Amino acid sequence: MKLFATRCLPVVAFSLLLAACQTAQQETASPADELRSSFQQLDQTLAAGQLADAENQLKALEGRATADARFGQYQRQLADAWLKRSQVALQQGDLNGAATALSHARSLMPKAPALTRGLGSAIDKARQTDNETPLPEPAPQS
Fold first, then answer.
1. Nearest Cα to 105, choosing from 71, 68, 77?
2. Phi and psi (nearest 5°) for 2?
3. Which of 31, 37, 42, 40 is CA-nearest to residue 64?
4. Whether 78 contacts 46, CB under 8 Å
C-alpha cells in the first residue's frame, strides 16, 4: 500500500501545480481584456465624432495604458481629428472654434510640427484681417 501512495503522490502534486499555473494565467489575461474594451469604446467615440468625450476617455486610460502602443496611436488619431475640426472651423470663419480645436490638438501632441505652425499662423492672420476690416457705417436716419 505504501508503494501505491508513493507513486501517486508525485502525480497529484504535479496536477496541483498545473492547476495553479492555469489559474494565474487567467488572472493576467483580464487587464488586457479591460484595455481592449476601453480602446474599443474610444474607437467608437472617435468614429461618432465626439472628440471631447474621446479626449476624456483617453485621459482616463493614460495611467493604465501609456506603455501600450495603441495609446500613442489613438492619441495621434484624436489630435488629427481636432486638427481637422480646427481647419473646418477656420474655413467657416469661426476663429474661436478653430483656436479652441487647435489648442485641444496641441495639448495632445505638443511637439507635432503641423500643430506648432501652419494652422496657428493661419488663425492669427484671419484674426488680424478680421480686426483690420472696418465696420460698416450706420445708415443715415431720416
1. 77
2. -60, -35
3. 31
4. yes
Instruction: List all residues 6 or more positions away from 127 whose beta carbon is below 8 Å from its beta carbon.
Output: 95
Which residues, at least 6 apart from 35, have a Cβ–Cβ distance to it below 8 Å? 61, 64, 65, 68, 70
Cell of 100: 479652441
Mean per-residue pLDDT for 115-134?
61
- Mean pLDDT across the stretch 49-75? 88
Cell numbers representing residue 133 in the block:
476690416
- Read off the pLDDT of residues 6-35 as tens digits, 9 standing for 90 and up: 666 666 666 665 666 665 444 444 556 678
Mean local confidence (pLDDT), 67-94:
88
What does the pLDDT read at residue 108? 86
Q: What is the pLDDT of residue 48?
A: 93
What lies within 8 Å, CB to CB, of 133 at 6+ separation is: none
